[in-house]
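User: My advisor, Dr. K., asked me to get a structural model of this assembly before our group meeting. I'm new to this, so sorry if the format is off. These are the inputs:
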Amino acid sequence: MRAKELMFKFWVILSGIIITVITFGLFLYILYKGIGVVTPEFIIGSPKGIPLGTQGGVFPAIMGSILSGLISGILGGVLGLCTAIYLNYYCKNEIIRKYILNALQCLAGIPSVVIGLFGYTFLVVGLGISKSLLSASITLTVMIIPFISIRMKKALEETSKEQYISSLSLGIPKGYTIVKLIIPSAFKYIMTSLGLGTVFAMGATAPIMYTGVVIVSGVPGKLTDPFMALPYHLYILVNEGLSVEMAYGTAFVLIVIVLFINIACHFTGKNEDV
Amino acid sequence: MIIRTEDLSVYYGYKNILKDVNVTFEKNKITAIIGPSGCGKTTFLKSLNRTIEEYGGKTEGNIYLNNEDIMNIPVQKLRNRIGMVFQTPVVFPFSIYKNMTYAPIYYGERNSQKLKETALKYLKIAGLYEEVKGDLDMQATKLSGGQQQRLVIARCLTVNPEVILLDEPCSALDIKNTANIESMLLELKKDYTIIIVTHNLAQAKRIADYVIYMEDGTVVEMGKTDDIFDCPLDSRTKEYITYMKN
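Assistant: The format is fine. Below is the predicted structure of the whole assembly, which you can bring to the meeting.
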């Protein structure tokens, strides 16, 4: 019995170590391989060289990724938060609640390439919106909604039901209670969910391949412009055999942006004065 | 008489928690509800301002507030008139001052001077002002349990209710804090009607004017405190009181 206990403890600790080593190893490896390429010219320049992308920089891709991530993060955040509020505070019917939760689970399970195909068929072909920042952002929003909704639902549950009911007991309606008490109380968790959703969207390639991203373009000036994105640029650099070094540089930039957004969301939540 | 119930029953799903409760609560008096755990005291309390509905409970029968059926009063207005304080002190994760101005701001008070006056007035009534007067911007969660409970009562008073429901407000407090709350309640009854659920029979005896004894979701007996404690009419009441005394 004691041997089994020790084996279990050993395996649990080993699993933790493996995950930590993989995570930090991956980060450090990409940072190590990419740092040599990352210069000011790489950050603020456009792709150059023949074939295109073997020289120059990734500025349009940085801006494209940030813009598509932010738009889908905002859209997904609003929809996700409202869905979470509905599920936690307004949905009285248990069947409807389960149906919505199951729908979110199903949506979360759909491969991103299928969501991309749906976005292309519905937005680009069906509604006639061109391959653009808008189409891609909406498609990314569909992808991250279940991810954000479930996390925001849990975030709102962090606030005790007693607080919610104490506010109602003062004769204060649900809406005011949610806006003035529940959301500020769960702000840190909400921001963290939003940050994770945004970086999830920024890292996705498949949903934007059919809906808005192109190999080369400038910084999108309006929502209907096509755009470059870091993950797709990385995919092209490797897939077409253009430059593995530049691909690592691109991955480096993407990881730094992702880390920055995560840290910013964490501290935004932490500093919120409630 | 300020509140009267008529054949009040409460259900959680198909489970009948309260059965045909008929009681009255006198104005500006303290009524204590006592009884063994699980007898429906808290459920009864929660049904008086329809908080029970937030827990999925359903009521049958009638509850009258000043002879007006509470189902005819908009639920927010009802909860404004019948405030509630829970067993565990539930302070909002704001500063002490923001806890005190949370409800007045909702009710439209924007004048910062008036908000401050309201906050200080009720902190004083709750006997908390002297302890926190220099720290109104401090997070309320940093107060002690007894202070938090008094803050919650003070916050409840900011909406000027007619009735205050208290669900075992001292169960997590020490003797000193319990004494503070009890003396505050004795002061408050001059202006408010107080209904308190308590397991502490000594507390009921000390502060209550009337006592209701409940068992298995029904009211066994109600009457003046001395009558219930000294010469209960029902043998079940007598048994419970004797058991708890020992």
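One thing worth pointing out at the meeting: The CA atoms of residues 69 and 202 of chain A lie 5 Å apart.

User: Perfect, thanks a lot.
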